[in-house]
Design goal:
mainly beta; five-stranded antiparallel beta sheet; elongated; 9% helix; 21 strands; ten-stranded mixed beta sheet
Length: 400
Amino acid sequence: MRLFLLLIILLSGALRVASQVPQPSQPELAGQLPAAMNPNGPAGAPAPPAEKPRSVRIPRLENPPTVDGRLDEEVWKRALVLKDFYQVYPGDNIAASRATEVLVAYDAQSLYLGFRAYDDPSQVRSTVAKRDNIFEDDYVGLFLDTFNDRRKAYALFFNPLGVQQDGILTEGSGEDFSVDIVMRSKGVLTENGYTVEVSIPFESLRYEAGKDKPWGIHVMRRIKRFNNELDSWMPISRERSGRLGMSGHITEDKSGSLNQAGEIIGLENLWQGRTLELIPSLTLSESGRRKRAFPRSMALSDPTLRDPGRFINEPITADPGLNAKLLITPTVTLDVALNPDFAQVEADQTVVVANQRFPIFFEEKRPFFLEGKEIFETPLTPVHTRAIIDPDYAAKLTGK
């Protein structure tokens, strides 16, 4: 009993002493954290930008810029400037660690983007990476919702050297990087960070444009060394549903959605040509077989006789094929395949099969099946296009 009372007295004394030790104030604690992990933002950083308009108008250019990665042409002075980015990860709509400016303009043929990412060039992470494999670098880019339906958008991102990562984001289903659109990009390191210049032909996009027709846009920047910091032009509330949940961009953030994107307007009188894409193929094959040099009866009559045989080739056969894509309107596309040969598609990666009861699903990369591929990407997999092995002919009309 005495020992128990003694322990109580000692414990109460320790608590009294601890309560008398001065505790650091909240600003002192915050100042001890690294800038990228500081919930109040980096030391000396300005407050988050004031609320900005969600819809902005982009100007039309008379002369297109030269895509060389350097934003020093006079034409860029007429472009719309998007700035005052928010840090949406790891911070929650606080001031960004580094400043970013994005220039946006267009002409009848293309949409033009210029990125100025201010930083110490010696600290920028950039490699000559393969296409769609820039996740370990710093990068800039955007989600472009060309129908403004808040459900699907083009994911177009670029590392500091201009290497492209492109795909289609479907809300709730993630990104599909098998889609490669035709565009031009170039990036260079500068004394103030890096700049990236991009030209996206409207022929490469499916869209709805016209007077005051808005496109959804999310412009973002990733800074890897600051705890994978992600900056966004528009603020992103984590309280609203509709997460992007992307494999390479906001996996750990648990934030961001198309229903919080900004809007650009002013895209009028765009050139709507009838784009025709043809992918012909020709496969030549030759087969042969081994034949006896003399009749089998001679070998039976003389066991010591050895038949050396001879190899006879069959005539060379030709197997032509064709893939065609016709862009009827910016929203309707016709795909046709005649005896297609998929030899131009890269080989599937080798996998180890441990359970024979379940099939292995490989990514679809064949040109005919890529248009509108996201329609069938559901948890139930109602259509598995890779099960179609050797079609003779096919046609597909896709639209919105």
